[in-house]
Amino acid sequence: MRFRLLPFLMLLGGGSLQAQGPTFGIGRTPTAEEIRAWDISISPTGEELPPGRGTATEGALVYLVRGCVGCHGATAIDGAAPRLVRREAGPDVDPWNLGRILPIRSPYATTVWDYINRGMPLGDEGTLTADEVYALTAYMLYLNDVIAEDAVMDAQSLPMVQMPNRDNWAPLPDWKPGMPRLPGYPH
Amino acid sequence: MGSNQPDRRVFLKRGAALAGGLTLGAAEPVIREATASGQSVEEQSQEVQEAPDYSSDELIAYGERSPHVTSVREPVNGRPSPDDFGLVFHIGTPLGDQVGPITPSSLFYFGTTRGSIVPDIDPAEHRLMIHGMVDRELIFTMDELKRFPSVTRLHFIECAGNRSNSRHSRIVESHGMTSCAEWTGVLLRTLLEEAGVQDGGTWIVAEGVEEVKGASSLPMAKAMDDILVAYAMNGEPLRPQQGHPLRIVVPGFEGILSVKWLRRIKVVDRFYMTYNDYGHLRQDSDQAALLNQVGPKSVITYPSAGQQLPGNGFYEVRGLAWSGGGVVSRVEVSTDGGESWMDADFRGTPQRMAHTAFSFNWTWDGTEKVLMSRCTDELGQVQPTRAQLEGGLDNSIQPWRIAGDGSVHNAI
Predict the structure, then answer these.
(1) What's the CATH number where A146 sits?
(2) What is the ipTM of this complex?
(3) Whole-prediction pTM value?
């Protein structure tokens, strides 16, 4: 038995050594430019945000010029596309009762920037400049009474915006293999 | 067809030769079907004459299903599809027609944030990048990915919106947004170990290459456990609607997390709150805990609402069971509205986070009955009744009512 175990133990030892380096040596290292071009998911810390800036006033113009108005309507509540504003609900309403309005429900303003950047305009995605995305984000946040009309949004200020839901959501439990959906919960 | 229509006599001769020789077994069920519906064999022959030219290059190259098999997918909840923007959001699979645990690729349910806009990706040009908090940033071609050790596993994918309500009159509406395929690909763990995850890399962001570049955050523990970077389903490359040429399959988690058209995995140090993530947040921590992992669930697919039993007598009650918690360990069936329960039989060996086919031998006495099924998984989680349901995904027990005339109805 002792001899039979030996190769197995050697395999284990070899495996842990190999964990320090690549096992298969397949693939190549991407260039910094390749990474930068694809690195578009924006952290709540904003670390991936590109240089640029914009205000709500500028955003109102971009909203017209880039055609947002065509689908979302002149007031961002009256188009065929999803409404973007719940301002008329009043300042004291729980944001969770206002539906899935991105610039209200999202805990972080970075998510608003991220989605406009990756997903808009429909059919012409990826064509907005960083300045235009900052401006549109500022406009959406201003329309929902989250920031002032003249507030400048950039890579430093955007992650600092206090969204109504900033701390008003339940984190997911720390998932582990083999765990039930909820401890003590039968379903 | 026009001038391409084969000469009828030639065709009949060929058909007779086939029936008499190679495909005797295949021909038999057609005749039985015809007899059961009261058709004569002569009438049956008339229909066969309308069949396509079996010598055409198209049919030699790629087999199609019989024109008599008409099972199709449907938009879910009667939403207009495509909508005002040319988008289709959720298309359900006809579970009531399904036989066995695997959903045919053409009938696999379909849901995306950008609906009908399915990217046309040349696999020769496609790349997967792994970067972020890793020792070695890596980019792979599809051919390179296929050189890694692979696994082939059966897994279901279910949409979080797969909810049953009393307005649903057929199972495609109430349960159609779950499907199961045999997936082949590389374990994400293999690729992450090749890149070397750094300390503090506790989450990943997986992202697609389609127009909206759909992205989701996933915990590293899941990524290192069983997430599959899949390039094939049901023995062939992924279908375009299912992420061709590459997707992740996140076993047992909400469908939206199984990112399609995958081009990037970034190792990060926190929940990234992507657009997809934020839409699934909850205020209450218990509600939040019920997200992600699909609960134990089952449904009887035959007889199910919208179907018709021809009369009293013997039936094999059939259905599917699955759980995000692992292997289905038990399925029970009730024929009296939940008063009493009896164990169903598994058809095939249950597998982790996979549709598991079950059956139950039943003789219907012709009186009104309510049929239900109840799933228990390897963690001991039991499928709840609708009254017990506490939010999250709808994994509640589905009752079907068999009326005295054999018609089957939603009994919610």
Answers:
(1) 1.10.760.10
(2) 0.88
(3) 0.87
